[in-house]
Design a protein that fits this description.
This protein has three helices and twelve strands, in the order αβαββαβββββββββ. It has 170 residues and is α+β, with helices and mostly antiparallel strands. The protein has one domain: Sandwich (Jelly Rolls). It is globular.
């Protein structure tokens, strides 16, 4: 995992931060992988509101409980940024089989989003609207309370690492 001091400081200042080439993934996160983990583990998957069938955006809940690599990312970010523990902390996978546009929303937790497959635009709304492109191995931090929209340019898989606790000062 590679994160520069400038990026660490940006996250500590609660700024949306894109980190290109944050990691080298150990697994090939493709749709065969998704199929395998859903079949082998008790991971619940729910479709997010969409148009139905294959055009839905799917969410696989709490994959950190079954896949060690995601637990490592969760633990690393939690310790690096000194988050207070919360039982809601965890890693969910979001995936879509076709390019897809999500709804604008605000998350109640800080999210670190890791690109696993495909290309995704995160449109962040604030005093100005900024588009961030997340590719495989990239990480974007979106602080809680920041309105954003997800645009899957290609079929995609992302890991959303949600941290609900506050950060320790210092």
């Amino acid at each position: 995992m590679l994160i520069k001091e400038k990026e660490i400081n940006s996250i500590k200042e609660n700024k949306v931060t894109l980190i290109s080439n944050f990691t080298i993934l150990k697994n090939n996160y493709d749709f065969n992988f998704i199929s395998k983990i859903l079949e082998e583990n008790e991971i619940h998957t729910i479709p997010k509101p969409g148009f139905g069938n294959l055009k839905d955006i799917f969410q696989a809940l709490r994959v950190d409980l079954s896949i060690k690599e995601f637990l490592i990312y969760l633990d690393f970010l939690k310790k690096l940024f000194k988050y207070r523990p919360s039982e809601k902390d965890g890693v969910d996978l979001f995936f879509s089989l076709v390019s897809q546009v999500g709804v604008s929303h605000i998350d109640p937790e800080d999210v670190f989003i890791l690109g696993l497959k495909g290309k995704t635009i995160y449109k962040v709304f604030g005093t100005e609207t900024i588009d961030y492109i997340v590719n495989e191995n990239d990480l974007i931090f979106i602080p809680k309370g920041i309105k954003h929209k997800v645009i899957g340019i290609t079929p995609r898989i992302i890991a959303s690492i949600g941290l609900f606790g506050d950060r320790f000062n210092g």
